[in-house]
Specification:
Number of helices: 7
Radius of gyration: 16 Å
Catalytic activity: N-(5-phospho-beta-D-ribosyl)anthranilate = 1-(2-carboxyphenylamino)-1-deoxy-D-ribulose 5-phosphate
GO molecular function, one term: phosphoribosylanthranilate isomerase activity
Largest sheet: 8 strands, parallel, barrel
Strand content: 15-25%
Shape: globular
Enzyme class: isomerase
Order of helices and strands: EHEHEHEHEHEEHEEEH
GO biological process, one term: L-tryptophan biosynthetic process
CATH class: Alpha Beta
Number of strands: 10
Number of domains: 1
Oligomer: single chain
Family: Belongs to the TrpF family.
Structural class: alpha/beta
Length: 207
């Protein structure tokens, strides 16, 4: 099965269009004000509205209040929600929308327990753990910590870039990969050449 790709931390329309042009299946919009890749509702709405059919818009939240999430949903078309904080399964599903739950993986993380807890998630997004950071660490975690038999689709994140994504796919066999810093020229500003190289790496994994 083809590995899907999400380019996250999009802040500009031209970066979203470049991601689409090179074959990304989804773009991620970060609604976490502390992130250097934060995007406000108005530009996010323009980015999402310009996406072609069959490309998903993903909204990333970190311990946002229901009011904050609902305010974004009232202004921005999102296809799926991504929760990167300490949200419970009940908090993730309260909006009646498809969601992914991010898990920051450490050596003692029980991923099967997370899969059971968030059993109705469309996927678990597995990211590296770094104290004080909700994501976007640029660090690769030990992929050997992921159980071979996993009940939910896996979206693999954490330190992926054009050089290592093929190896990551061959080892983990994730449903999708998620990249942000690995295809940037500056935080929140994507590099089209790196996006193209990343997508080529994804394709090379199948060779």
């Amino acid at each position: 099965m083809r590995t899907r790709v999400k380019i996250c931390g999009i802040t500009r329309e031209e970066d979203a269009q470049a991601a689409v042009r090179y074959g990304s299946d989804a773009i991620g919009l970060v609604f976490y004000p502390s992130s250097p890749r934060y995007v406000a509702a108005a530009p996010a709405a323009r980015i999402a509205a310009a996406l072609p059919p069959f490309v998903s818009s993903v909204g990333l939240f970190v311990d946002a209040t229901p009011g904050e999430v609902e305010a974004i949903l009232a202004q921005v078309h999102l296809d799926i929600l991504q929760f990167h904080g300490s949200e419970t399964a009940e908090e993730c599903r309260r909006y009646g929308m498809p969601y992914m739950k991010a898990v920051r993986v450490r050596h003692d993380t029980n991923l099967l327990q997370y899969a059971a807890q968030y059993h109705d998630a469309r996927a678990l997004l597995l990211d590296a753990y770094l104290p004080g950071m909700a994501g976007g660490t640029g660090i690769v975690f030990d992929w050997g910590l992921i159980p071979e038999q996993f009940p939910l689709p896996i979206v693999l994140a954490g330190g992926l870039n054009p050089d290592n994504v093929a190896d990551a796919i061959r080892q983990v066999h994730p449903y999708a990969v998620d990249v942000s810093g690995g295809v940037e020229q500056a935080k929140g500003i994507k590099d089209a050449a790196k996006v193209a190289a990343f997508m080529q790496g994804v394709q090379n994994a199948a060779l």
